[in-house]
Amino acid sequence: MKFSTQKLFTLATLLLVITAPQFSLARTADEWRARTIYQLLTDRFAQAPGQENPQLCSNNQNEPEIRHYCGGTFSGIVSKLDYIKNMGFDAIWISPVVKQMDNETEVGVGWHGYWAQDIYQINPHFGTPDDLKNLVKAAHDKDIWVMVDVVANHMGPQEKKTPRTDDYVKAYNPFNKTDHYHVFCLISNYNDQGNVEYCSIGSADDPLPDLDTENPFVVSEYYNWISWLVKEFNFDAIRIDTARHIRQEFWDDFTKSSGVFSIGEIPDGNSGFVGSYQKHMDSTLGYPLYFKLQNLYSNPNANMYEMRDIINSNRNSFNDTRILGNFVDNHDQERFAHKTQDKVLLRNAITFVLLMDGIPIIYQGVEQDFTGAPTGNDPFNREALWPTSYSQTTPTYQFITNINAFRKVVPQSFFTSLSIEAWIDEHIYAFVKDKALIITSNYGGNNPNRDLVIQGNGVWPTGEVLVNVLKCDEKITIDGSLNVPVKIDGEPKVLYPENNLKGSRICGL
Ligand SMILES: *[C@@H]1O[C@H](CO)[C@@H](O)[C@H](O)[C@H]1NC(C)=O
Ligand SMILES: *[C@@H]1O[C@H](CO)[C@@H](O)[C@H](O)[C@H]1NC(C)=O
Ligand SMILES: *[C@@H]1O[C@H](CO)[C@@H](O)[C@H](O)[C@H]1NC(C)=O
């Protein structure tokens, strides 16, 4: 057979269209501003439909068991997307997807995804590459964006073997040469940034081999890889694990190569230190705010004036605090519901995180009041979700749903503006954002019965009626001095003009 050039060209174009990966929209920081993220651990979120083993990891205190795979998969996530969607989330953060070391260690195996063996293969415990593509597509079909967790600092551990020998490194792909790794040392001083970047995390028995991210092969391989990963699977953002363990300049081209919104993990309370990373990636997790808020809201004796200080120092230290990833819980920190049993305090913390400047992240299980008992920490704060039967009727699930619905009603200016402090004292922190007045406190279940007059500063006219979106029968009328008279009872309040809620179906309006 003979084809004309024209026909060949048409055929080639056709093949290209058929075989080309899904067109990627490459979501930017600006597009992420108004999103709300649900953080899930793939192994712990949902098992594959028809292949469930509900007993597995149903006893979260069985420590050997929960340090191994519990059976969650990509197809499991697909089957439970409505559980996430119905709570009002429009983005998920999934744990790392690459193939892990399967070696047994004294702390189990890499079910969490942070112990890579081959960065070009997909973790077979979670499904096939096509299963992962199906997950992203199914999420996009429901307008849920997908942020993938990625690691560039280290590979997975091999128990009681000395890293950086030929015999050791041959297990990894593509980093199978000794000079792809730093000479072995365990991090000994977190105040010495050189030590933090050069040496290994992990324990003496199970160090995580630390990649030489100054080695040109390692650097270019990572830039190619992140570009491939995001395009191949059509991800909308990356969450960068152990970001502070690699020199900052490495991230400039890494994040550029990804082509999407990036958010780095720097688990430190110092705004200046964490803020310096925002020059090298779009955003970071809001750790400085987190360390304050978890204490301020869980401890009725903590002094809320510290909230003002941290907000100010964040604004001075970050390029843009409005895209920081804010959270109450994650898989690395003690569960809030373990610090305190008081659900009123939990609701105050959740309200603050969902409405303060930033992109809120709610970690799986918060909605089910998981406590991470007995310690609240790793490994117990990584509970499987199936023992809850994915109930959508728990008070916390519904509470989150209400605030997320409210986030869908406010104008875009809500997400581009900075909050303005409206009231502060030892127990109360209140702020205005757009036309919303958000009042939080750390009284918890001890109702203080306080009457407060909060200055309106001209945000609302006299006579304007504000409804508490969290308790629809509570309405407040702006008084003749343009102020807001409120009764403080310990519960958070989200007050918004009734007029602006018309047609939203919030509070039946
Ligand atoms: C860990 O697993 C890799 C890959 O299966 C293997 O080559 C290596 O020998 C194992 N290491 C140990 C210490 O068992
Ligand atoms: C290292 O990986 C490369 C690329 O996959 C491969 O060609 C090479 O044979 C590997 N070297 C060793 C020592 O396994
Ligand atoms: C700082 O933030 C602004 C607003 O989000 C953004 O346009 C700008 O690119 C950021 N600058 C840097 C250096 O990241």
TrEMBL record:
GO biological process: carbohydrate catabolic process
Start and end residues of each Glycosyl hydrolase family 13 catalytic domain: 39-407
UniProt cross-references to SUPFAM superfamilies, sorted A to Z: (Trans)glycosidases, Glycosyl hydrolase domain
Assigned EC number: 3.2.1.1
Superkingdom to which the source organism belongs: Eukaryota
Reaction(s) catalysed (UniProt annotation): Endohydrolysis of (1->4)-alpha-D-glucosidic linkages in polysaccharides containing three or more (1->4)-alpha-linked D-glucose units
UniProt keyword annotation of Metal-binding present: yes
Keywords: Calcium, Carbohydrate metabolism, Disulfide bond, Glycoprotein, Glycosidase, Hydrolase, Metal-binding, Signal
Binding positions (Ca(2+) 1): 153, 197, 210, 245
Pfam families registered for this protein in UniProt: A_amylase_dom_C, Alpha-amylase
Cofactors (names): Ca(2+)
Coiled-coil positions: none
Residues reported in the UniProt entry to bind substrate: 115, 154, 239, 269, 332, 382
Secretion signal, residue range per the UniProt entry: 1-26
Active site: 241, 265
CDD domains per record: AmyAc_euk_AmyA
Family: Belongs to the glycosyl hydrolase 13 family.
UniProt-recorded name of the protein: alpha-amylase
